[in-house]
Task: structure prediction
Amino acid sequence: MRSLLAAIGTAVFTACAAQPQAPTVPAAESKAPATASTRAPFSSTYRAEASPPTLIRNATILTGTGTRIDGGDVLIVDGRISAVGQSLSAPSGAQVIDASGRWVTPGLIDVHSHMGASASPGVDAHSDANESTDPVTANVWVEHSVWPQDPGFESAIHGGVTSLQVLPGSANLIGGRGVTLKNVPATTYQDMKFPGAPQGLKMACGENPKRVYGDDDQFPKTRMGNVAGYRQAFADAKDYMEDWKVYEDERAQYEKKKAAKDEGALPPKPPKQDLKLETLAEVMRGNILVHNHCYRADEMATMLDIAQEFGYRISAFHHGAEAYKLADRLAAEGVCGGLWADWWGFKMEAYDGIQENLAIVDHPAGGCAVVHSDSEEGVQRLNQEAAKAMTHGIRAGFDIAPERAIRWITANAAKALGILDQTGTLEPGKMADVVIWNGTPFSVYALADQVFVDGVLRFDRSKPAVKPWSDFSL
Result:
């Protein structure tokens, strides 16, 4: 066997050496003229596979909209939710699943993952989530680190996770752009990229950046240094936006002169492209959503003031151990809290966490509580994390029914990622991202029996896959 493997290895390396690759121009640098069929660089190539009509019958359904249907049906046609209700008719050729005694929910969504960028196996070669070479690395995109063969993706779908946001790490003040993925097997990250999902910007406040840089006497070393760093970065981006506005105005004037046959008209020179400032400009234009790692309530309030100063909004605070202290303000300003059920005390800024945090953030009108993982293990049991938070909230006197709590890992998560119009609830027209559970998902014994992504059965516990998604699952 060893000699055979050696022979195969020799053949592979010989073949690679014998076929030198011609140099290529990266897509972003291509000078080829755009056509109607040209795909934008780095854009999604995800396409839902064809699937037969499917009728799931006689289940307890949590729609993600706050509604529970006992003895309900879900009809999937062409990868979309066609109908949700009772006594639905199966179209011709449909597969019918009897879900009696089982529960059905939307596919779960994790808003905070490093899957693929901090991949398993956990070796240095797979440590690609933190570009910690500068406090502000808004120019990097984490999708360029995502390795689709990370076996964690398959483990996550076993827990019912059908979509997830991958973020850069929290070493930096501004760590770069995140990406939302459909949880499907693929060769490239583009084949996983959620179509139409806005990118996120990862920011981090508090101990992480001041520890990473301050220990070597680099800036920032203090919390006031952190705040100065964010503000200067956005101030520079505002100047950059103004430079481009001046150029566009001058370009418009040049085009008018050119149209008037003014032979002396000279085209203006555009400003130098700056990838870092472009990202921050897109944030201020509202095209990139801010996801802010932040534990303490006072720091969240500071970050909200910075957002107001520079005219952008924060989509979600992540980790937020003290989010309960300003739950009313978060609800009023439409900011979600991406929170753990009970992680606390592992560093000073996480010391004042409480187990009722999620319930309190969820309580005000407009409150948006989200259970996130930040863990390749926790992502496999988001339903159990939500169950813990629900239980602690009920003990504290909050009225939290399953149809409310399911939103913490479905609809609210989709809202934070800007994809609620496409997924996160079981409503006609939305993507058929659906989980059938063996019982209530809010149980330590809960298991996902079947998981559909865009109507395609991606996991069936009764029929384990013959071949794993990734060779590294072996």
